[in-house]
Amino acid sequence: MNRIIIPFCFLMITIVGLSQSNPNIHFFPMGTILKENIPYNNDANQKHLLDIYLPKKSKGKIPLVVLIHGGAWLSNDKYADMGYMTKTMAAMVDAGFAIASIDYRFSTEAIFPAPLQDCNKAISFLYDHADKYGFDIKRFAVMGFSAGGHLANMVGLSKNNHIPNFFMNGSSTTFSIKAVVDYYGPADLVLFPTSNDAKSPEGILLGAAPLDRPDLAKIASPINYVDKNDPPFLIIQGEKDESVDPKQSKLLSAWLTVKNVQNELIIVKDAPHYGVMFDVDEVRNKVMHFLKKQFE
Q1: What average pLDDT does the structure give for the chain?
Q2: Dihedral angle at the C-alpha atoms of 62, 53, 233, 150, nearest 10 degrees?
Q3: Which of 46, 158, 193, 218 has a Cα-to-Cα distance from 17 of 20 to 30 A?
Q4: Quick one: pLDDT band at residue 9, thresholds 50, 70, 90?
């Protein structure tokens, strides 16, 4: 899965404009407000940090898109994926949306559901501090890439199932998700050709090969949480994805359709697993139209 690895530092700053520690702020609209390396779990774990990008000017409460990076659940950071999605990131802020890009514990540190617990905790933190940052708690969306797409799907689909183990102890569970944008995220962990390998990314995530522990694979697979009360989905998949078979996205879309959940599946012709082909006008316009419609 997404293998872009971008180093980052942990200097806590709040700025307007450029930041020496943030490799992505330069492609955002001039005046974008960056609040960097905010601890969301009240601990010293460097994977429990998030960045917030706020539009320079806003009228009223700000819609928020929570960004979850990819990396096979065991690599990358909150700067990854943004680097090849520069125009889409800039367009969201230019449209008056805030972005919160989050880190989470790798599967090599803590197996599932730890990464999902971290995502839910980060969103809970953003919800609980919405007044501080100006967020509209009724307009939260999640956007994920590859493994981050899997986690975004899990957040969006499992929230209304009220599963305590998907949340950290003492974490607020009152937030709701208005929409999900899924870029090539796995939907069913047993569909991987390496699902019989405990050392595969999905095996490391579960702590066992999915085919050896289908019970664990089921718990960690988004399709098992689809129901009629789920938020709308926009699913974006590369036609020639070499890491996540397009069948994964097609299966998720089919289940959403069967359960009467609003969704759209976009297959990007000739596109691989990730890259600038997902930042082209045609795809970006679809993403922006979807988010604007859900945030109305």
Answers
A1: 93
A2: -140
A3: 46
A4: very low
Inside any domain, residue 180: yes
Nearest to 97 by CA among 59, 132, 126: 59
35-57 residue pLDDT tens: 999 999 999 999 999 999 999 98
Instruction: Look at residue 170 in the predicted model and tell me its pLDDT.
Output: 87
How far is the C-alpha of 82 from the C-alpha of 99, rounded, in Å? 11
CA angle, residues 215, 252, 287, in degrees to nearest 5? 135
Q: Is residue 3 part of a domain?
A: no
- Asked if residues 286 and 234 have their Cβ atoms less than 8 Å apart, the reply is yes
- Largest CA-CA distance found in the chain, in angstroms, rounded: 53
The answer to whether residue 2 is domain-embedded is: no
| Distance in angstroms (rounded) separating the CA atoms of residues 116 and 286 | 27
| Domain total in the chain | 1
**Angle value at C-alpha 75, between 24 and 90, nearest 5 degrees:** 20
Judge whether 109 lies within some domain. yes
* Contact present, 25 and 33 (Cβ < 8 Å): no
Range of the domain at 59: 14-294
